[in-house]
Amino acid sequence: xxxxxxxxxxxxxxxxxxxxxxxxxxxxxxxxxxxxxxxxxxxxxxxxxxxxxxxxxxxxxxxxxxxxxxxxxxxxxxxxxxxxxxxxxxxxxxxxxxxxxxxxxxxxxxxxxxxxxxxxxxxxxxxxxxxxxxxxxxxxxxxxxxxxxxxxxxxxxxxxxxxxxxxxxxxxxxxxxxxxxxxxxxxxxxxxxxxxxxxxxxxxxxxxxxxxxxxxxxxxxxxxxxxxxxxxxxxxxxxxxxxxxxxxxxxxxxxxxxxxxxxxxxxxxxxxxxxxxxxxxxxxxxxxxxxxxxxxxxxxxxxxxxxxxxxxxxxxxxxxxxxxxxxxxxxxxxxxxxxxxxxxxxxxxxxxxxxxxxxxxxxxxxxxxxxxxxxxxxxxxxxxxxxxxxxxxxxxxxxxxxxxxxxxxxxxxxxxxxxxxxxxxxxxxxxxxxxxxxxxxxxxxxxxxxxxxxxxxxxxxxxxxxxxxxxxxxxxxxxxxxxxxxxxxxxxxxxxxxxxxxxxxxxxxxxxxxxxxxxxxxxxxxxxxxxxxxxxxxxxxxxxxxxxxxxxx
Length: 553
Description:
Elements: E1 9-18, E2 21-31, E3 35-40, E4 46-51, E5 55-60, H1 63-74, E6 87-88, H2 90-96, H3 99-102, E7 105-110, E8 120-124, H4 128-173, H5 176-199, H6 206-232, H7 236-240, H8 242-260, H9 279-283, H10 285-296, H11 298-323, H12 328-331, H13 334-346, H14 350-358, H15 364-417, H16 425-428, H17 437-451, E9 458-459, H18 461-470, H19 481-487, E10 500-501, H20 502-527, H21 533-543
Parallel strand pairs: 2-6
Antiparallel strand pairs: 1-2, 1-8, 2-3, 3-4, 5-7, 7-8, 9-10
Helix pairs in contact: 4-6, 5-6, 6-8, 10-15, 11-13, 11-15, 13-15, 17-20, 20-21
């Protein structure tokens, strides 16, 4: 029975039971929000659990109905010896067919489409008032249960429609037509933005209205595509994709700026329209590879720039101390000195515009050493390090991107090969480091002794099954009866008793080892792998004469 806190009502009623005779047996009847439970009084074990949603009707029984049921039970033909005769209680007949007894009985009729196939349950109460009360309670709970089920069905239908809509939007968004159409619109929008920046039309002019309506068309198209993306990748996948978030921000700013472009402060949002061209990076794989490579290079390049910035700040402080009085326009304070050193680092006329004029106010050797040393350290050495780091990370990222489909193909190939993986493969993998046939036989014998812990010289399927589960493997080795039949060659390697002795177990493990090596050798060959481990193991197997039988040859 369910926990008592879930009970709506309970009571002792009598259930009409037809077995060898027709009788009324006492039952504990429990009502919950979902079911009617009929349990035995002695064990409180549920005999029937009737879902309220499967109850077709709850009515008080009629005298004619009870009389006909009793007569039907009475008319069962008597049998010869060993058979039984329907016995009926006189008290039951007199009580159930009387008007008073009939008023205390109600019937629960179940649906023919439900679990009980239209069965009718007759229950008898102690009084007519109790009978009416039970009928009303069951009818009310049934109505509530049906309403909940209908609401759940409607909700499930809504969820199903939503999933269908998601699938449709996903297919449309990833279709080749949408992909190339959006790419064309992005490129066309970029051309229109360039033309607007070139013409700079006056507000409310003919050209301005042309560009304004073109912006509405582009924004509408990109908004529709964004909705397809959001619905097709609802909810978490959309917000976890940085390109999708970027599209959302750009489209949102474009929608806001259309009616508010003339208001102060909102004109800056028009700049976001230009960034739509970056969507091409997402749509075109070669550009997407470059962007990922650049993004992966950010942190190492920033580290190299940090070293360059420290050196530049150091020389800027030195320049203020050395040349601040003589050259106030370039080294009077740190900010001017830092900008001067950045100009020198870029090589933008540092000799003619910065260094040579300072020779007249300061020592030429001092000025020369200061700037030449900075050019060698920052301009030649550190800048090349930045370029080298950027190039190295860029190449690594590109190679990683190229290896991704290869790795996916390899994993798919491994999955295909492992479909016929033997349950003994984890155990067999521990035998691949053998040095001779005698060493292999000894390792197999050690395993057999672990499985044959009783020391009787043979193991049954159940002993082999339990022994393999006890071995320290994660997950544990699970050997089924079908696996046992397969590895014993349809029980050909078993004794008459169905058990496997030490010699047969050695043969089984050698067969599994050979199959294991061949499978992995085929896998490595199909992968085109440069790993020679499995090739060497296969050659060792051939040289040592490891075969289906026993010892070496």
